Amino acid sequence: MSLKGTNGRGKGPGRGSSDLRRADASAGAPADAPEKVRNVALVGHSGAGKTLLLDALLAATGVISRKGSIEDGTTVSDAEPSEIHQQRSVVLSVAPLVFDGIKVNLLDTPGYGDFTGELRAGLRAADAAIFVVSALDDIDASTTALWAECDQVGVPRAVVISRLDHPRANFEATVAACQRAFGDSVLPAYLPVRTGTNITGLLGLLSRTVSDYSDGDPTPEVRDANAEELAASETARGALIEGIISESEDETLMDRYLGGEEIDVDILVDDLETAVARGSFFPLLATSAETGLGLTELLEMLTRAFPSPAERELPAVTDLAGNPAGRLTCDPAGPLVGEVVRTTIDPFLGRVCLVRIFSGTLREDSAVHVGGRGLAERGHEDHDSDERLTHLYSPVGASLKPVPYCVAGDICAIAKLANAETGDTISAKENPLLVESWDMPEPLMPLAVEAASRSDEDALAKSLGKVAAGDPTLRVERNSETHQLILWCMGEAHGEVVLDRLRDQGVKLQTVPVVTPLRETFAAPAAGHGRHVKQSGGHGQYAICDIEVEPLERGAGFEFVDKTVGGVVPGHYIPSVEKGVRAQMQKGVSAGFPVVDIRVTLVGGKAHSVDSSDAAFQSAGALALREAAAAGRIQLLEPVSSVTISTPDEFVGPVMSDLSSRRGRLTGTTSAGGDRTEVTAEVPDGELLRYAVQLRALTAGTGRFRRSYLRHEPVPASATSAAANA
């Protein structure tokens, strides 16, 4: 039902109408102008019903013949094996539909915190967002935090209450929860109409008509509201009208309304749509993916109130040297600029890139420039290449429909690009440009893996490259000290998905405990005697050296001092002693970790005119350091990081208490604005291995932290055994 209502009564546009039953023929077709496109991200916590709502909308517009099931793994947007196994979305998925001549690209985003990177990519590709809230569950803190982020950048939004078919659904309580979480500018545009305990229709507060869904068809019968229904809706209608008028550019409307004048519905609807498009007013709608309730109303909101790409500001662009290249406009005739928002590996098509076109028109069989910058720290080296496109596709979940072109504002898929990665810019070969990258969360949970056998190492390396190309929230590191292969993930669920993707490519691997890169030092002065004398016929080996070792302050490094007299160790062998000591320091002298922060003084030794050699004195130097360690006292050093945690004020106490339990030293707290506080502390790295998971649990998914290496410090006696075995 339109917000303006209908003059005639009967079936409104919906799946039951012949116009929309033919929509499947055009859903995969490219749009011919930005004004005929809407890019809308479905966001909300895991389990809110985003995926089922998307399927219901596709079925209502004829894109698919029937809705899928999460339990059966048959939904359009959840096609990855890990999604079917976990029964939740883990990747960004796109499915277009056509309603009233407008192409709507729906972007289904994951709701679980580990997959924030996919959510960010979805918001980057979208021009508006639908916050899906379950009528059965509370609004979690992470959803509230996401709303605040969208508010800061002015993203147009609407709220959809889902699962209203459930017996425990409570529309009124959910509306109140939405207003507490999102603000008073969230107002219902429709109220449920009940038959007994079931919601069978929706009353349009502006049109004063009722859409009757009692027959289970997504296409409602439309009738005038009766006197009882009108009386029950007056308070909500007044609040909606006042909310719309307060956002109107016509300053006389409020005085006219308060003076008792009946404001024309067309004026109210126009002002509502304008306020929604600029992101200052947020209509709330009621839906049920199961019964089809509210789908027509939602489709009308998507196409009439949400802005087209031509109405949204585009990201900044530079040339390859980093110089500003001017502001882009969403013009199909402008310079070609698109951005890869997701990359997958298809067993038949190879690398498939989901691309949002910001400017220009992308055509099949054209030459393009692929450029990536700014992710070198995550293992994605800066790169540039010129490639020729073979085919373009319109994505419908995991399915791809060939299209000849894609205009500015639309979303398409490109297959068989050799070097493109998520976050890369697609531009014209003759005018290469780079789009300013979006904010990507830092992966902070390490996962150590190793190939099951030596023969699997090459396969692991190749598959990791493919997986990392499509996942900028994954960082791959070969630790130079522990020699472990570390996958830095967003959390446990993210790590499981990465491992599943590697195994799906035939890689045999196993996870192992993460080794914290400890170091060793001398806790007190010690002396060592290195005697390397061997005679087994022919040329022998002879080298003797005496050293003294003393600890230095943290971070001082290594010093080698020669105090021999009388040439007891010939001058050309003294560097050999130092070389042997350094080699042994790298191997460790107690627990196998590098030795740091010591001064080694060579005080004596002996040489042989025939049997002494460079190799012999290296061995003697190494042996002398080992003997000094055996006679002295060795101290383990652990890495300590400076950690900054951003958390809502209500969780500051639990966060600080938890840090203390991790042997952390609190260094300060500062207000971060918006009811958030930043807590800073110094925490041993060994206590941070699973902190990404534990902080999320501690702060209801709203806590974030960043870390940077600070120094190595002595391991307390109470933790020495655990640290050495880590």
Write the layout of secondary structure elements.
Blueprint: E1 10-11, H1 18-21, H2 24-27, E2 37-43, H3 50-60, H4 81-86, E3 93-99, E4 102-108, H5 116-125, E5 128-134, H6 141-153, E6 157-162, H7 171-182, E7 186-188, E8 190-195, E9 198-204, E10 209-212, E11 221-224, H8 227-246, H9 253-258, H10 265-277, E12 282-286, H11 295-304, E13 317-318, E14 337-346, E15 350-359, E16 361-363, E17 367-372, E18 383-388, E19 392-396, E20 399-403, E21 405-407, E22 411-415, E23 425-428, E24 434-435, E25 445-451, H12 457-469, E26 475-478, E27 485-489, H13 492-504, E28 509-512, E29 519-522, E30 526-534, E31 541-551, E32 558-562, H14 574-587, E33 598-607, H15 614-631, E34 634-648, H16 652-661, E35 665-673, E36 676-684, H17 691-698, E37 704-714, H18 720-725
Parallel strand pairs: 2-4, 2-5, 5-6, 6-12, 7-12, 32-33
Antiparallel strand pairs: 1-11, 3-4, 8-9, 9-10, 10-11, 13-24, 14-15, 14-23, 15-22, 16-21, 17-18, 17-23, 19-20, 19-22, 25-27, 25-28, 26-27, 29-34, 30-31, 31-33, 34-36, 34-37, 35-36
Helix pairs in contact: 14-15
Structure overview:
With 726 residues, the chain is an alpha+beta fold. Helices cover 26% and strands 32% of the residues. The protein is built from 18 helices and 37 strands. The strands form eight sheets. An eight-stranded antiparallel β-sheet has the order 18-17-23-14-15-22-19-20. A seven-stranded mixed β-sheet has the order 3-4-2-5-6-12-7, sandwiched between helices. α14 crosses α15. The longest helix has 20 residues. The radius of gyration is 33 Å and the shape is elongated. It starts with 9 loop residues before the first strand and ends with a helix. The relative contact order is 0.09.
